[in-house]
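User: I'm writing a tutorial on reading structure tokens. Could you give me a worked example: one chain, its sequence, then its tokens, then a sentence or two explaining what the tokens reveal?
Assistant: Sure. Here is the example chain.
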Amino acid sequence: MNFAVLDVDRRPEVMAILRLLNEWGTVRYFSPDEEEAFIAWLPEVDVLLIRLYKVDETLLLKGRKLKAVIKAGVGVDHIDVEAATKMGIKVIISPGNHISVAESAVLLMLALSRHLITLNKNVHAAEHMHALGTEMYGKILGLVGFGRIGRHVARIAKGLGMKINVYDPYIDSSKINEIGITCVDFKNMLKYSDYISIHCPLTAGTRHLFSTEAFKLMKPSAFIINTARGAIIDEVALYQALKNCEIAGAGLDVFEQEPLQADNPLLELDNVIATPHRLIQTKESIMRQTQSMVDSAILLARGEPAPNAIN
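And here are its predicted structure tokens:
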């Protein structure tokens, strides 16, 4: 069996896990500047292991022997799942980053609440700064999506004494209400939340879910956090809402265009904390994801089904 590994982490401890695949076939690694070599070998590839590499129908058609695409993490908006399904190619996710993503979301909430970045930049002029921070205790956190990540954010937020509202049309609200968390519709989540943290996938239905209309429903004191996918927020609308003080601030680890461009107007604003889709990466999460990817690949090599296939 032939395995192609593209844009996944290659630290020594990660490579030690990936080398387990050597017992099951030929493994070739391709860096971003070796795309031509990868495309040339693609017709011989059985299993493709990626992180954020774009896998569209054109690429899938070149994989004559391709049986599966295994990706680090759970977001698949960069993979044409419909085309893969038609071709009989499995798309397999690799959970393992839910703890690091949840911690990153709460970190952004805390940093925004206490003006952390501004205070750090002005550490020698703090006596001239009069803005007061905000406590998170007793505030309402609105979660958009209540999967692995959303649930872990809720656990942390409960420990901080926050009240939790959830908007997720795909969950059983009765089960959520049983654990002291309130299910609400989207408009009520916008109206009453002091913090909103996004943990849903990017789909046709969630693209620009946060629009001009959505921001106008939010509290002027509210903060929005996005560690999911950039295009869930309309960045033009977000910029206007922040500049016009319709909301208090935003913590963003993801953007509509990545890598983040230096001329993105959101970077001009003092009430934005921006990180380059790396805040969520931890040693632990990368190790868990890599092990999950390798476990799935080995199952396929044995002729067994992979439990994390989504199609």
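What the tokens reveal: The first helix runs from residue 12 to 18. The chain has a mean pLDDT of 95.
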